[in-house]
Design a protein that fits this description.
By secondary structure, the protein is mostly helical. Helix content is 61%, strand content 5%. Strand 1 (147-152) and strand 2 (155-161) form a beta hairpin. The structure holds arginine.
């Protein structure tokens, strides 16, 4: 496992085989290969520029690292990706390769590689979130007038539209995108040059390497630069919330596609069967998204627990940071793709949603509002509508089934136009307050979401 690079001089004996395997991070940190090489190139160019190594050595290192990046050599035989890259470089170009580690430690190297990975993940996550958001906006536009029940306590409450409901999902995703942008902005500082913990005696230019690697700035304290993993914890927290959102959406899809709700049918291509029950068509994709949420929460807690008792600066415990973030990023990206594809393949039943909205007195608030508009204090209107509901329940009727005479028995303020006020489509159209379910209000919201996506894509702007 050990290439010998790290033990020359100090150690008389090789590392025990079991200890070596236990100590090694190569099986998982090999994913950082490209970031490590890019960091090496920036470092070598800076060393040469500052006269710390010769221009010739700088050129030889840079060219060999660039070739490695293109070739992607098989990775093995080292303690970690950092010692692998250095050993492979030295195997290729000899002595010049042994100069690359001047003014550098694996501690600032790993902090750099992991940050570059996190920054790259932010781009991928933002793209996946934006793609899902775009799909939802398109789907919502098709359902501006698809009336469905809105719920509180999972009890039918007031009529909304499917567009309004999907646009609520969109807001979750929009916040997720901006949360990642916030985390990204804070992690945009380069730790390279912090050394093992206390910088270096060589006249390095940290701003030069930071610029070359695309960072907005440099970590201003060398102890903090190598010890900080906030950026990973913050990204994990953002991932945990994305998964919380997907899980809530997944739960709704599971409910909507049940026979009890029957608001939507799963597409064959995005549902699964049962080994025993031939009739079954199961929402496995949604259930897996809900289930995998636990994994991502677990990763957040794993990292928070790893860092909680660590004295400054680097401690090997920090090697445990990587698998947590890798797993959470992989899982979230997988879930976003699979869930988005499944949602857009759902076949919604407008009839069933409307039928459900017609049961359960969803227009009772509208009935009370009608009386309030005619001058009755809302508290009294609420009581009249409540009494009407009770009356209807006894007779197995809906409010709109009552005759005007019956209605007037409860309040003389009722007129013929009450039937229009009780019509579900009218109830939805009437809720035109900003953010409400009226088609015009939802269209305005969807337009703003579309503009948000366009800004994200067009300018590459981090909104
Ligand atoms: N594999 C190590 C990690 O992931 C790299 C840094 C090693 N540094 C050290 N001082 N042992 O954290």
């Amino acid at each position: 496992m050990d290439s010998g690079l790290l033990r020359a001089g100090r150690f008389a004996a090789p590392l025990d085989g079991g200890a070596s395997d236990f100590n090694s991070s190569l099986p998982f940190d090999k994913r950082l290969f490209a970031f490590d090489v890019r960091g090496g190139i920036a470092h070598a160019q800076m060393l040469a520029e500052r006269g710390i190594i010769t221009k010739e050595d700088g050129k030889a290192i840079t060219e060999a690292l660039a070739a490695m990046l293109a070739e992607e050599p098989p990775i093995s035989g080292a303690e970690d990706i950092h010692s692998f890259v250095e050993a492979e470089l030295t195997r290729r170009i000899g002595e010049a390769g042994r100069r690359l580690h001047t003014a550098r430690s694996r501690n600032d190297q790993v902090a750099l590689d992991f940050r570059l990975y996190a920054l790259d993940s932010c781009e991928k996550l933002t793209a996946a979130l934006a793609a899902f958001l775009q799909k939802l906006v398109t789907l919502a536009r098709e359902h501006l007038r698809t009336v469905m029940p809105g719920y509180t306590h999972l009890q039918r409450a007031q009529p909304v539209t499917l567009a309004h409901h999907l646009a609520a999902w969109c807001q979750m995703l929009r916040r997720d995108i901006t949360r990642i942008a916030d985390a990204r902005a804070r992690m945009d500082e380069c730790p390279l040059g912090c050394g093992a913990l206390a910088g270096t005696t060589f006249p390095i230019d940290r701003h030069m390497t930071a610029r070359a690697l695309g960072f907005a700035g440099v970590c201003p304290n060398s102890l903090d630069g190598v010890a900080d993993r906030d950026f990973a914890a913050e990204l994990l927290a953002a991932l945990a919330l994305i998964m919380a959102h997907l899980s809530r959406m997944a739960e709704e899809v599971i409910l909507w596609t049940s026979s009890e709700f029957a608001f939507a049918a799963l597409d064959d291509a995005h549902s699964t069967g049962s080994s025993m029950m031939p009739q079954k068509k199961n929402p496995d994709i949604a259930e897996l998204v809900r289930g995998k949420t636990g994994r991502v929460y677990g990763s957040l807690f794993a990292l928070l627990t790893v860092v909680k008792g660590l004295p400054l600066a680097y401690n090997k415990d920090l090697q445990e940071d990587k698998e947590a973030l890798f797993s959470a990023v992989d899982t979230t990206l997988l879930c976003l793709d699979a869930f988005a594809a499944m949602v857009v393949s759902l076949v919604f039943s407008k009839e069933n949603m409307l039928r459900a909205a017609k049961m359960g007195f969803l227009n009772a608030t509208d009935c009370a509002d009608y009386l309030a508009r005619r001058g009755l204090p809302f508290r009294d209107s609420h009581a009249v509508a409540g009494a009407l509901v009770r009356f209807c329940l006894e007779g197995g009727m809906a409010l709109e089934d009552l005759t005007l005479e019956q209605l007037r028995g409860f309040s003389p303020l009722f007129d013929e136009d009450v039937y229009a006020a009780l019509d579900l489509h009218e109830c939805v159209n009437g809720r035109a307050s900003y953010g409400g379910p009226a088609p015009a209000a939802v269209t305005e919201h969807l337009d703003s979401l579309a503009a948000f996506i366009a800004r994200l894509r067009g300018e590459g702007e981090r909104v």
